[in-house]
Structure formats: C-alpha cells, structure tokens
Design goal:
Blueprint: E1 3-8, H1 15-20, E2 29-31, H2 33-44, H3 48-72, E3 77-80, H4 86-95, E4 100-105, H5 111-119, H6 128-137, E5 149-152
Parallel strand pairs: 1-3, 1-4, 2-3, 4-5
Length: 153
Amino acid sequence: MPKCYQLIGVPGSGKSTWVDKQAWAFSCAKISTDKWVEIYAKEVGLTYSQVFTDFMPTAIGLMAEEVIVAREMNRDIIWDQTSTTVKSRAKKFAMLPDHEHIAVVFETPSRIELKRRLDSRPGKEIPNAVIEGMLASFEMPTEEEGFKEIRFI
C-alpha cells in the first residue's frame, strides 16, 4: 500500500528543509502549492509574496492534478503543506483513500527562531497575523483521524 506522509507544522518549522535531507524522499511525489507559486514567481520575475494571492488558486489546481497522477501511479507521497488543522488533513485523506497516512509533526521553534527563519526567506513574507492564527488553531494529529503512525521531528 502506498504511503502519504502529511507534513504538519507552521511555516518556518523545517518541513521542506527536512524533506530535502531525506535520501528516501527522492523517490516520492512531493506535493506542495509553494512549489508551484515559486516556479511561477520565477517565470514572471516577481517574488513569491508578489504573486501569492493571485496565483494561489492556480497552484491549488496544479497541486490537485499532481495528487491525481501520483495516486493513479500508486506512488508514495510527501505532502508538504502546513496541515495544522483536522479539516485541512481530512481533505488529504479524502483525496488519497488507498494510501497509508503517516503524520510527520514538526515542533514549532521559539518565536525568536521562527522569526529568524521566516526573515531568512527574502521575497516570501508571511504576515505575523497569519502565523499567529496558525499557532492558535493548531490541532495535534491523532490516530482517530486515520493516521497509521505519527512521527515527531
């Protein structure tokens, strides 16, 4: 049975950095809206932040197409989004009912470290209110949601 690794954590918690360091992850389909936003921003010569609002609906559509292809090919998937709420994770379960889901939870760094990490990404500004909202609404994943395993990084 193919696996879906749902990465769970706020922006700047280390999700994408962690994936890039996992040798086993190179054979997985990496699903992310950020990837599409970054590609488009580069193509049009703008920053992530400059294209985010207008391009996000397109990025979501492209990501969904990627999920369908990976699902049809029975590929293992790494879903690199924040996935901080039960509702956001339920959508992933619904799209991949035949995958074994594994939660990979990333600890939120201290506010100082989180700010340092977020500030180190020029052109990719996330408003503080968005981060605070994610922190306030964060829901720890549970096996009752459907996860076969929950890993903490």
